[in-house]
Structures are given as structure tokens and as C-alpha cells.
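Subject: Sanity check before I submit

Could someone independently write out the C-alpha cells for this chain? I want to compare against mine line by line before I put it in a report. The sequence has 222 residues.
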Amino acid sequence: MNKKILVVISIVIAAIIIPFGIYTISPLFTSNTVNEPLPTTAAGVNKNTALYDYQKFVSMNDRERGNAAKQMSQRDKNIVMIGASQINNTINESTTPDTIKLGQQQQQQNNSTTARNIITGYFIGAGDGFHNAVGLARVIQVGDGSKILRLENFKSTNGPNVHLYLATDKAATNFIDLGRLKANNGNQNYNIPHGTDLAKYNNVLIWCKDFSVLFGKAQLKA
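---
Independent answer below. Compare away.
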């Protein structure tokens, strides 16, 4: 075969093989870099705007908040939550309250009242990177046989219309509402309705009623 023809064939083969080889092998020898920021619940939100939206939301009555919450996007809810997280309040109640409310009645407790710890649980946060709760939940039986739920060394993320539930699970499918959370920091007491089955309602939930969001849970155990 003519030497010139061999050279041409070699060039043609090389023109096909070399680009193919570079294409298939190159990822082994090349690299690229990306630097993404950590995701946030509402990126780019101005904190002053979030605080204003929160204050506007909580100024509504229960019905208005419920209707507004149904119309809000997840981003709008997150903005309100960010505004709420800037608010901190603290309460520190004594271990044995002077007054225990049972249903609609109030009974005055004297200085000889004794309290007995029944069951306890430690709070853990919701695990979503934003909503959190820490501290101890204690069920205490006082001298007249009534029970209170006491939060000690408690701290949680703040939010709109946050309540304290005794529930059968962390999704609040079946619960007893002990009332609005008094503060997102500190030691505080809540009356447990007479006859509550604590073996059934053994999950203490920090729960946002308006947005149906869990902030933290403590499971009560003997």
C-alpha cells in the first residue's frame, strides 16, 4: 500500500480516536467546584419586615388568624415564624404553685402542701433546623390529688399562638390542650384536667395551633 495512503488513514483514525478518548477519560483529570449557601427557611427576608408581619398576624383574633393562615404560602408562614423567633419572654413560677385550677374552680393551697413527682420527660426539638425546645417536663401530684405539668429549665423557639398539649403522638392527632404557652423561657406550671389518662396522653408537645407545627416533644415516663 502506498505510504501516503497509510499516512492519510492513520490521520483519519487518530482524528476519530483521540477526541473520543479525551471525552471519555477527561472526567478523571478535570474537576469543578461549587459553593452553595446553607438553605434558610426564607432566604433574603428582612428581620424587621418579619417582625412586623408577626406582630400584625398575632394582633388578629383567633378566627382572623385561622382564616389568614389558610391563605398563606409556606414562605409567608416562615416569615411570620422568623419574626416570632425574635421575641423572647421568660416566666419563673415556684415548684409548688399556691393556686391550682381544677376545671372552673380554684382551690387555695396552704404552706403544708406536699408535691410528689410522678413522671418526667426531656424535650427534644422538631429536628427541622428551625423549631426547637429543650428542658424538663414533670407531672407533679399535689396534696389534694390534683396534678400539674411543670416545665423546668425550659426554652423553645417562639411562635404565633403556641400551645402546650398532652397528646397520644407527636402529630397531635389526639390531644388535650393545656393552654397557650406562658413564655418560651423559664419554669412554668399547667393544670392537668382531672381524670386525664397519662399512660395514653404521654407526649408533651409544644405546638403552633395556627400553622399546625411542632416545635418540640417530651415523652413522659415513670
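---
OP: Matches mine. For the report I'm noting this point. The chain is about 25% helix and 35% strand.
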